[in-house]
Structures are given as structure tokens and as C-alpha cells.
Automatic annotation (TrEMBL):
Record's protein name: Sulfotransferase
A Pfam family assignment: Sulfotransfer_1
Family: Belongs to the sulfotransferase 1 family.
Organism: Bambusicola thoracicus (Chinese bamboo-partridge)
Alphabetically ordered keywords of this record: Transferase
Enzyme Commission code: 2.8.2.-
Domain Sulfotransferase span(s) in chain numbering: 2-143
GO molecular function: sulfotransferase activity
InterPro entries per record: P-loop_NTPase, Sulfotransferase_dom
Keyword Repeat: no
Amino acid sequence: MNKVLPDPGTIEEFTEKFMNGEVLWGSWYDHVKGWWKAKDKHRILYLFYEDMKENPKREIQKIMKFLEKDLDEEVLNKIIYNTSFEIMKDNPMTNYTRDFVGVMDHSVSPFMRKGSVGDWKNYFTVALNKKFDQDYKKKMADTSLVFRTEL
């Protein structure tokens, strides 16, 4: 849907390029591991989409604590509401329907698609999932970082 990026090809082709770091901006593995390691030298808060979907209030409270801020319940509830996937998907400030006109082709796909966890299962075959899992385990073996892919 992003017209300035190269055509990703099929899911199998893109996954192969992704695993080999042959995508725009290079290796996702190196990028993620580098930022995960940065926590040893810098004060960084890591948040995960699955955790935000599971319990948005808890995750926003983590941000508040990290920023050393205290907000009353009414403001907290407004933040929870306005940062929900459903509200952000309809917000031109976040869904790229107002900005980047001509760059984002929403007839191909909306920028914000479903907001669900585990949708990868609808696209990965069993064989592709096995191949990706093996690659992931190999390349992420030297990190303590753990991702959830389901709720």
C-alpha cells in the first residue's frame, strides 16, 4: 500500500527477504536486538502490542510510572479510549488517510488493518511458520527478549 516502497512480492518471498535482512532498513533482528541491548546503558521503556491489547490500562500506567506522572482516573480513561485501535483506525491523524495522500494506497490495504493479535496465522502456511520459527530461534538465541504472538 506504500507506493514508495518496493513491491513486497508474495508472503513467502517477503518472509525470505525479511529473514535475510534484505528489506528496507536492513535486518529486523539486528535492529531489535540492538535496542533491547540498549537497556543496559539507557533508561528505556519497552511496550509490546500484545500486552497493550490484553490490558491497555496496565500498559498506560507503566508509561505514567516511567514518566513519573500521575493522572486522575478520568484522564486515564480518555487516554485508554483515544489510543484504542478502533478509535485510532478512524482518526486521520493516525491512519494516514489525510497525510501522505498519493503515497499510501488505501485501496490496496488500510494503513491500520485489523488490530488483532495472531492474524499472522491467516497468512503463514505451516511450512512457512516452521521455517520462520527456526530462523527466529537461531537469530534471537543470544537475547533474553521474548515476544508473544498470541493472547
